[in-house]
Design the sequence.
């Protein structure tokens, strides 16, 4: 009873029957930092992951230090 | 989870707003909210010419798409940095910006840094003490210089950038940790024009980064997904992760941090902004009297050439 999460080409096996949010907690990914998609469509993190499903995660954080204060 | 507007399956849940929306209503909501922010902060009007700084990433392309849908006169500016990173980062970004513009029949200005100044950003950074192996500082200064120049030369009324709330909160967090008051004073959704510099606005400053990525996906906007190779491990990303940890435990924490800062400024906690928030490094953080650079005409804190013109050996040409 497993399913798969994929983030930046890295695969994580998770237990099916749990929510996306719970699965993300299990693999140590902050749900604020990613979007979950199934079959190319965005899904909310209360969605239950079914057996054999592949959930692709889109990382959303970006940014260099070009705009940050040099005083840091 | 159901869409609050129509009851269909939601594709996003914005916990800070207690709002879930579907594929159809989410992009509509984003566009409506963007218009609300443009008006609330008096950013620009439909009669004005807008220059959108476009990187090929999710935020700037989404911003251009939103402005286009709202009917603004918005042209794009792409700056080619000459960054490869093993996957043609700059070439791919440019291709995506050009593709976006071509699909919508929009005008895109392109300034290629190696062609114009004879060096890529990484090479400039290696050569100068300012870079000290950190191209981000040189990159930021160069982009700001070029954006100012093109906006001024092409007579745009306003320059807009795709900074989202996570960008703004990360900068605010960094500057608060150091009590960099000069920088805090200048952080604002809109900054008035000054001699040699256009008005600047950040219409996405109240949208979470996650929301902009979702907008790009729902709208089918092809954007560069891979991070700039020099941004990996940056302090900005580090601060964003810290803020997201807080947000995860307490939805709305990032938004509240940023909005209460703006409110405090309005209440007089900081002096009114005098120059661009991002320009402080080049133009002085403590509000020194500004001079005009004899080479490029942009403001500078000391008499003589500005930091950018000192860094490059050639006179800008496009």
Sequence:
């Amino acid at each position: 009873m497993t399913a798969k999460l994929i983030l930046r080409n890295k695969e994580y096996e998770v237990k099916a029957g749990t929510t996306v949010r719970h699965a993300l907690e299990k693999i140590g990914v902050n749900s604020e930092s990613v979007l979950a998609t199934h079959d190319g469509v965005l899904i909310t993190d209360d969605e239950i992951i079914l057996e054999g499903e592949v959930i692709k995660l889109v990382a959303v954080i970006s940014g260099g230090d070009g705009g940050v204060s040099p005083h840091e | 989870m159901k869409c609050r507007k129509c009851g269909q399956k939601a594709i996003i849940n914005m916990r800070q707003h207690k709002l879930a929306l579907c594929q159809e209503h989410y992009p509509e909501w984003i566009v409506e909210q963007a218009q609300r922010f443009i008006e609330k902060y008096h950013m620009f009007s439909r009669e004005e010419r807008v220059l959108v700084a476009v990187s090929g990433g999710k935020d700037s392309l989404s911003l251009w798409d939103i402005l286009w849908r709202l009917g603004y006169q918005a042209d794009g500016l792409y700056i080619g940095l000459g960054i490869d990173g093993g996957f043609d980062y700059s070439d791919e970004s440019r291709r995506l910006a050009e593709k976006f513009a071509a699909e919508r029949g929009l005008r895109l200005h392109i300034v290629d840094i190696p062609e114009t100044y004879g060096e890529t950003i990484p090479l400039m950074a290696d050569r100068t003490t300012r870079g000290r192996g950190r191209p981000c500082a040189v990159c930021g200064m160069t982009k700001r210089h070029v954006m100012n120049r093109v906006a001024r030369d092409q007579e745009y009324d306003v320059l807009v950038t795709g900074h989202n709330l996570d960008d703004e909160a990360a900068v605010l967090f960094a500057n608060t940790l150091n009590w960099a008051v000069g920088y805090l004073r200048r952080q604002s959704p809109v900054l008035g024009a000054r001699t040699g510099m256009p008005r600047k606005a950040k219409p996405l400053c109240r949208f979470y980064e996650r929301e902009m990525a979702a907008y790009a996906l729902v709208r089918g906007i092809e954007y560069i997904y891979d991070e700039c190779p020099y941004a990996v491990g940056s302090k900005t990303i580090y601060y964003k992760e810290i803020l997201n940890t807080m947000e995860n435990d307490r939805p709305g924490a990032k938004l509240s941090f940023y909005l209460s800062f703006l409110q405090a400024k309005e209440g007089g906690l900081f002096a009114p902004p005098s120059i661009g928030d991002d320009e402080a490094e080049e133009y002085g953080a403590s509000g020194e009297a500004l001079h005009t650079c004899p080479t490029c005409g942009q403001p500078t804190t000391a008499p003589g050439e500005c930091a950018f013109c000192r860094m490059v050996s050639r006179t800008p040409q496009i």
